[in-house]
Specification:
alpha/beta, Rossmann fold, five-stranded mixed barrel, 7 helices
Length: 245
């Protein structure tokens, strides 16, 4: 039995864990097949993710209230940076880079990556191995995504590197499982105008951006919903299996 901390940036991305928990509390350990799963909602952006990971893993100003996990799984949505990864593609990271050029790429657990890919394939779900990159900004158009792709990354998110960085040196294996919600060619509403100082979304500003780009916002919401359905299916399989032993 492995204790797995599952990090999600937002409540929406953590919803699959709540479905698994049923009537239970997803913030407490939930028995799921071979694992006890604890959901950690980090907040959006590198700064929020690092602060939450530090606190949860015992490096914050207060001791962690949880036992040390056997593994960490980072879940959620991501943006595609290559034509080969269309919307709905399930990916697991081999490593993750930061947009801060001086920082090194951080590797994910090779054993967990291999287990996830093999397990999902046996259930008829293709899961691509991908190099990710974490950015403090939302890549809203093709030009911005192509600039990120110059790093060699195939997908982008806003939290994975920070959590990997917090876990570095602890001996805790980390895996990332995400689904591409926006392809390289999708144009998004400019939600960067709604980011607050910590990298999360300011609700009022986000509403103004959404109202200013209603069609793009509706298309983004629909794409996110489809991607979350794919993530839920993958997690229902992965979290019941001994991928993190």
């Amino acid at each position: 039995m492995s204790r797995v901390y599952v990090f999600a940036a937002a409540p929406m991305e953590g919803e699959p864990i709540r479905k698994i928990a049923g009537e239970g509390n997803a913030r407490s350990p939930v028995h799921c097949g071979s694992n006890d799963v604890v959901l950690i909602v980090s907040g959006m952006g590198p700064s929020n993710a690092r602060s939450k990971a530090d606190l949860t893993l015992g490096f914050g100003p207060e001791p962690s209230l949880h036992a040390k996990p056997d593994a960490v799984l980072i879940i959620g949505l991501c943006g595609g940076l290559t034509k080969s990864l269309s919307e709905g593609s399930v990916v697991t990271y081999t490593a993750c880079k930061s947009t801060e050029a001086a920082k090194p790429a951080l590797a994910c657990s090779e054993k967990s990556v291999d287990s996830i890919v093999t397990l999902l394939a046996s259930s008829g779900i293709a899961c691509a191995r991908a190099l990710g990159i974490t950015s403090p900004r939302i890549a809203t158009n093709r030009q911005e995504r192509l600039m990120l792709a110059e790093s060699g990354a195939a997908v982008v998110d806003m939290e994975s590197y920070s959590i990997l960085e917090a876990a570095a040196g602890t001996g805790i294996p980390v895996a990332v499982l995400r689904v591409v919600s926006d392809s390289i060619d999708r144009v998004l509403p400019d939600l960067n105008r709604a980011l607050n100082g910590d990298g999360g979304l300011d609700g009022r500003r986000a509403l103004r951006v959404a109202l200013g780009s209603p069609v793009r916002t509706l298309r983004l919401m629909a794409a996110n919903k489809r991607a979350m359905q794919g993530l839920t299916k993958a997690l229902e399989i992965v979290l019941k299996a001994p991928c993190f032993a």
